Amino acid sequence: MKRASLTRRKHHDRRGATAIEFAICAPALFMIIFAMFEFTRVLMFQDLAKIATYEACRQCMVPGSTIEEAEAIVAQKLGLLRTVVDNVTVTVRNKTGPQTQIDDFTTSITVKVDINLYENTFMISPYFAGKKFSSETTMAFESYDGFYDGSSF
Predict the structure, then answer these.
(1) Which alpha helices (H) appear in the chain, and where do they start and end?
(2) Helix or strand run (H / E) with residue 120
(3) How distant, in Å, are the alpha carbons of 43, 66, 92, 97, 137 from that of 38?
(4) In this predicted structure, what is the pLDDT of residue 56?
């Protein structure tokens, strides 16, 4: 009889141990989980910046496009994650050097996006103060002045 009461008392003495263990471990666990969310979000920004620069180049490498169209495409793509963009640079080149607009003599288009991580993260912003990442895409301009009648060479 005495033995049964001892085991019962030991069981009651451990009653709050689980709550205390959870209170000690939970903050570290939640920090790890939220850090994973933040780093996933940063990776999403990087991928979305690559996609935005590619799409802007792809849409504006044909005659009749404008630099403003490229900037609008970048803004639209990065707006999907409500990204705060530091800088969008569209560089248009011909055989002699940089141009101010896209015309028939354009040879390449480069779109570069700079994103400031401090303004785009939620919880770990202090660790990204002054940190940026950039994405840049360059494509050749497509134009054809000749006439093709469909016959083989």
Answers:
(1) 2-13, 17-59, 67-78
(2) none
(3) 9, 35, 35, 41, 26
(4) 93
> For the whole prediction, is pTM greater than 0.70?
yes
- Are the beta carbons of 19 and 25 closer than 8 angstroms? no
Q: How many Å apart are CA 125 and CA 132, to the nearest integer?
A: 12
DSSP readout, 32-54? HHHHHHHHHHHHHHHHHHHHHHH
Q: How many residues does the chain have?
A: 153
pLDDT along the chain (153 residues), means of 10: 57 74 92 88 89 92 85 90 86 86 85 87 73 89 66 63
Tokens representing residue 9 in the block: 């008392």
User: 């792809």: which residue's tokens?
Assistant: 58
What phi, psi does 88 have (nearest 5°)? -125, 120
* pLDDT for the residue numbered 149: 65
Instruction: Point out which residues pair with 132 in neighbouring strands.
Output: 116
> Buried (b) or exposed (e) across 134-152, using 16+ Cβ within 10 A?
ebebebebeeeeeeeeeee
Query: Which residue's structure tokens are 């000690």?
Result: 24
